[in-house]
Amino acid sequence: MRRALFPGSFDPLTLGHYDIIKRGVTLFDELVIAIGINADKKYMFSLEDRVKFIEEAFKDEPKIKVTTYKGMTVDFCKKIDANFILRGLRNPADFEFEKAIAHTNRKLSEIETVFLLTSSGKSYISSSIVRDVIRNGGDYTGLVPETVVVK
């Protein structure tokens, strides 16, 4: 089975994430979306909300599983028998950052990282931008799946 892990904080899930997930799921038998837990980080949305946003967005996709994890991503990959890590790239800065992580992960394990370029119409969207729009009372509905829109 070709199982891939798509790790992130997903605070919140954006249309950029959604794009990578929808395209990435076609490449694997199973795609595990894993929300990393970092006790030192301050999140806008609770872990429960972030899980719910993702589960609801992909409720009709049987090849997608949603979970949470702590610790190193490669260790979690080994635990769930994932041979691939899926990552999205928006720009050259993402590439440089993700390349360093991928090389480190490859040094620590046999896990391959697969990169997908975010669709051009979504490449400007990041969770930090969405959080900033929300904090300032802006209309963020065009940046996130409808499951994230708080009514």
TrEMBL record:
<keyword id="KW-0963">Cytoplasm</keyword>
<feature type="binding site">
    <location>
        <position position="73"/>
    </location>
    <ligand>
        <name>substrate</name>
    </ligand>
</feature>
<feature type="binding site">
    <location>
        <position position="98"/>
    </location>
    <ligand>
        <name>ATP</name>
    </ligand>
</feature>
<keyword id="KW-0548">Nucleotidyltransferase</keyword>
<keyword id="KW-0547">Nucleotide-binding</keyword>
<keyword id="KW-0173">Coenzyme A biosynthesis</keyword>
<protein>
    <recommendedName>
        <fullName>Phosphopantetheine adenylyltransferase</fullName>
        <ecNumber>2.7.7.3</ecNumber>
    </recommendedName>
</protein>
<feature type="domain" description="Cytidyltransferase-like">
    <location>
        <begin position="5"/>
        <end position="132"/>
    </location>
</feature>
<dbReference type="GO" id="GO:0004595">
    <property type="term" value="F:pantetheine-phosphate adenylyltransferase activity"/>
</dbReference>
<feature type="binding site">
    <location>
        <position position="9"/>
    </location>
    <ligand>
        <name>substrate</name>
    </ligand>
</feature>
<feature type="binding site">
    <location>
        <begin position="88"/>
        <end position="90"/>
    </location>
    <ligand>
        <name>ATP</name>
    </ligand>
</feature>
<keyword id="KW-0460">Magnesium</keyword>
<dbReference type="InterPro" id="IPR004821">
    <property type="entry name" value="Cyt_trans-like"/>
</dbReference>
<comment type="pathway">
    <text>Cofactor biosynthesis; coenzyme A biosynthesis; CoA from (R)-pantothenate: step 4/5.</text>
</comment>
<feature type="binding site">
    <location>
        <begin position="122"/>
        <end position="128"/>
    </location>
    <ligand>
        <name>ATP</name>
    </ligand>
</feature>
<feature type="binding site">
    <location>
        <position position="41"/>
    </location>
    <ligand>
        <name>substrate</name>
    </ligand>
</feature>
<comment type="subunit">
    <text>Homohexamer.</text>
</comment>
<dbReference type="Pfam" id="PF01467">
    <property type="entry name" value="CTP_transf_like"/>
</dbReference>
<feature type="binding site">
    <location>
        <position position="87"/>
    </location>
    <ligand>
        <name>substrate</name>
    </ligand>
</feature>
<comment type="similarity">
    <text>Belongs to the bacterial CoaD family.</text>
</comment>
<feature type="binding site">
    <location>
        <position position="17"/>
    </location>
    <ligand>
        <name>ATP</name>
    </ligand>
</feature>
<comment type="function">
    <text>Reversibly transfers an adenylyl group from ATP to 4'-phosphopantetheine, yielding dephospho-CoA (dPCoA) and pyrophosphate.</text>
</comment>
<keyword id="KW-0067">ATP-binding</keyword>
<keyword id="KW-0808">Transferase</keyword>
<dbReference type="InterPro" id="IPR001980">
    <property type="entry name" value="PPAT"/>
</dbReference>
<feature type="binding site">
    <location>
        <begin position="9"/>
        <end position="10"/>
    </location>
    <ligand>
        <name>ATP</name>
    </ligand>
</feature>
<dbReference type="InterPro" id="IPR014729">
    <property type="entry name" value="Rossmann-like_a/b/a_fold"/>
</dbReference>
<feature type="site" description="Transition state stabilizer">
    <location>
        <position position="17"/>
    </location>
</feature>
